[in-house]
Each structure stands twice: as structure tokens, then as C-alpha cells.
Design a protein that fits this description.
8% strand; 2 strands; alpha+beta; 2 helices; two-stranded antiparallel sheet
């Protein structure tokens, strides 16, 4: 589980979000949906939880290796 917060890897939550989107969402994911005005990212509910700084069960925090999305379904 990952709880979005400032740490040695990510100074701001949007940096963690960009890391996840670049590693997983931009590669194509069946679960990704259209972006919304409120949440301009991929529109994925996981991304929304990160933006709200809520704990995210679907993201594994691998420390120095970054964050890993456990539910990504490649297109």
C-alpha cells in the first residue's frame, strides 16, 4: 500500500502521480478512462486517490525502486 506524502523521492504528490502515469498509464491500461476537469490525469480512480492524498491499496511502494501499480491491465 502507498500513502501519498512528501518524502526523499517525491517532494510533491504530483511528482508521485507523474511517476505512476509515466510508468504505467502512458504504456496503455485497460482500466484507464477519460480525464475529467477535476482530475486532469488519466482519470483512473487510483490516480484520483493519490490526488486526494488517500492511502492506495492498488499501489505497492517499492522504496528506491519507485511505485508499482498492481492492477494495471496492458492494452
Amino acid at each position: 500500500m502507498y500513502t501519498p506524502k512528501r518524502d526523499g523521492r517525491f517532494e510533491y504528490v504530483f511528482e508521485a502521480l507523474a511517476h505512476i502515469e509515466e510508468r504505467f498509464c502512458s504504456k496503455g491500461c485497460r482500466k484507464a478512462v477519460a480525464a475529467t476537469d477535476e482530475f486532469p490525469g488519466m482519470g483512473c480512480p487510483i490516480i484520483e486517490n493519490i490526488m486526494l492524498e488517500e492511502p492506495v491499496q492498488e499501489i505497492d511502494d517499492l522504496g528506491k525502486d519507485g511505485l508499482f501499480c498492481t492492477v494495471r491491465e496492458p492494452v
